[in-house]
Amino acid sequence: MMGAGKTTIGRQLAHALGRKFLDLDHEMEARCGVRIALIFDIEGEAGFRKRETALLDECSQRPGLVLATGGGAVLAPENREILKSRGLVVYLRAGVDELFRRVARDRNRPLLKTSDPRQRIAELIAQREPLYESVADITLDTGHMPASQVLRSLLPHLLDYQAQGDAP
């Protein structure tokens, strides 16, 4: 979900593992030359999701990459298949109140341009959580933990996968 720490923790994880990091939303903005919010305004969510799928398909084929997807990437069945088949998926889970606290001041969240953004986050979690869980190899509750503590909690799980030969 938005605000779960995908970019922050992803960067730190990539550094700890000696891998490259890529945030799919940032990559899309760089390629399109505009912010995600403007893509939503011009093409709607459907247009954005089509671009997201194409970019996920391309970027997920790069070996040795820590990739942070947008929170809605799991909505498309083809994206879920890509995620499950091409990498180890970590679901960073946080509650509604914590996510709202983290994103409340961010004006670049098109899905939160509503009269009740906290309620919208609750709706998105209700819709997406089963999808996140369906693709996740590892689920980590982030709660109020700082990113460094989340990373310390995550690394042993990843090392277990590597030791078993399951991690890409």
Secondary structure layout plus pairing:
Layout: H1 6-17, E1 20-23, H2 24-32, H3 36-59, E2 65-68, H4 77-86, E3 90-93, H5 96-103, H6 117-135, E4 138-141, H7 147-164
Helix pairs in contact: 1-7, 2-3, 5-6
Helix and strand composition category = mainly alpha
- Sheet with most strands: 2 strands, parallel
Which of globular, elongated, flat, extended, rod-shaped describes the shape? globular
How is the largest sheet built, in terms of strand order? 1-2
The oligomeric state is: single chain
Helix share, percent: 55-70%
Spell the H/E element sequence.
Answer: HEHHEHEHHEH
Termini separation (Å)? 23 Å
Average pLDDT value? 89
> What is the count of helical runs?
7
Rg for CA atoms: 15 Å
Spans of at least 5 consecutive residues whose pLDDT stays below 50 are none
